[in-house]
Amino acid sequence: MLRVLGKATSINVRKVLWACVEIDIPFEREDWGTGFKATDTPEFLALNPNAMVPVIQDGDFTLWESNTIIRYLATRYGEAALYPRDACTRARVDQWIDWQASDLNRSWSYAFMSLVRHSPAHQDAQTLREGCAQWSTYMQVLERQLAAGNAYVAGEAFTLADIAIGLSVNRWFETPLDHPPLPAVSDYYDRLCERPGFRLYGRNGTP
């Protein structure tokens, strides 16, 4: 059985858990990370030298990095609809997964640490305003993509890109800041809320 190491409240662990539900992969999860088993021990560092969750163990195969993990699971166990085999269609999915990691994810970092985690190191008012504005800018990129007639991020079909981006959309709505109207994103969020995997793991890890 697939072994998932990481606490269920971690946004990156939840990518893996949601993907497992979509692909129908049985798994066992163990609590690792802040508040649970430490990730800076030799035992864990032997699995992931970055000391971060999630890590999976699939038989004797160990893998870290959440977006790589969900690609692996879909490729090995999933159907083509979730992670298409056609090169051009798959590239479109990868494009949005990478955008989430490299652009959207970074844009909400300061605001999230300030407004949700209440980190003392993230309480500069000007930097917070700039961070919220940057986050809004990237959410408007998503709004335009969805408003163009796409039911999901990469087109009409639900794919891995929606797992990565859907969790970031949840973070957007759950963070206490002024949210500009994004009707296409709101409709998209409603569609995601209909999926059993999202109901289990998409909303901050709570049903």
Structure description:
With 207 residues, the protein is α+β, with helices and mostly antiparallel strands. 54% of the residues lie in helices and 8% in strands. It has helices at 11-23, 42-45, 66-77, 87-107, 109-115, 125-147, 160-174, 183-193, 196-201; strands spanning 2-5, 27-30, 55-58, 61-64. It has a four-stranded mixed beta sheet, covered by helices on one side. Strand 1, helix 1 and strand 2 (27-30) form a beta-alpha-beta unit. Helix 4 (87-107) runs parallel beside helix 7 (160-174). The two termini are 24 Å apart.
Lay out the secondary structure:
Elements: E1 2-5, H1 11-23, E2 27-30, H2 42-45, E3 55-58, E4 61-64, H3 66-77, H4 87-107, H5 109-115, H6 125-147, H7 160-174, H8 183-193, H9 196-201
Parallel strand pairs: 1-2
Antiparallel strand pairs: 1-3, 3-4
Helix pairs in contact: 1-3, 1-7, 4-6, 4-7, 5-6, 6-8
